[in-house]
């Protein structure tokens, strides 16, 4: 199964949140194929570099960097050639939907369900799920 993992899921995993943690572990076990594109990679690197987000993290910076490197090694690089502009409530999240469509993803997994489920342009083959709901499916 090909999916897009929103940055907030990876951050939650680093903070020890159960469903997100289990989901990232499942990706490392190759139970799904995470898609990665240029915009999402930039977002991951930016967010993972924000030390203030990880004050309560059980992982040190070096460990978070290593986890990200291992996760990225399991990702399938996907080029986005066409911008769909699904008009998500938060404009900065449109790239997630575009990556999912470009890579033929079945799911976009996020902790930001409200914004991503409110997109104006609908794609019937793409489901937006929380980490816990996704884990119940695999």
List the main descriptive attributes of the protein structure presented here.
single chain, alpha/beta, five-stranded parallel sheet, 46% helix, 138 residues, Rossmann fold
Commentary on this structure:
This protein is an alpha/beta fold and 138 residues long. It has one domain (2-137): 3-Layer(aba) Sandwich (Rossmann fold). It is built from seven helices and five strands. The longest helix has 13 residues, at 61-73.
List the helices and strands and how they pair.
Blueprint: E1 2-5, H1 7-14, H2 18-28, E2 33-36, H3 38-48, H4 61-73, E3 76-77, H5 94-102, E4 107-109, H6 113-116, E5 127-129, H7 131-137
Parallel strand pairs: 1-2, 1-4, 2-3, 4-5
Helix pairs in contact: 1-2, 2-7
What's this entry about, in short?
The protein is an alpha/beta fold and 138 residues long. 46% of the residues lie in helices and 12% in strands. It is built from seven helices and five strands.
């Amino acid at each position: 199964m090909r999916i897009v993992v929103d940055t907030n899921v990876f951050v939650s995993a680093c903070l020890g949140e159960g469903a997100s943690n289990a989901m990232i572990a499942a990706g490392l076990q190759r139970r799904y194929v995470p898609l990665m594109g240029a915009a999402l990679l930039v977002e991951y690197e930016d967010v993972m570099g924000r030390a203030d987000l990880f004050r309560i993290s059980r992982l040190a910076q070096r460990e978070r960097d290593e986890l990200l490197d291992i996760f990225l090694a399991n990702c399938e690089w996907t080029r986005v050639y066409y911008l769909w502009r699904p008009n998500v409530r938060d404009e900065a999240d449109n790239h997630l939907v575009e990556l999912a469509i470009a890579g033929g993803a079945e799911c976009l997994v996020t902790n930001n369900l409200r914004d991503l489920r409110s997109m104006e342009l609908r794609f019937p083959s793409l489901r937006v799920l929380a980490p816990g709901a996704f884990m119940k499916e695999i």
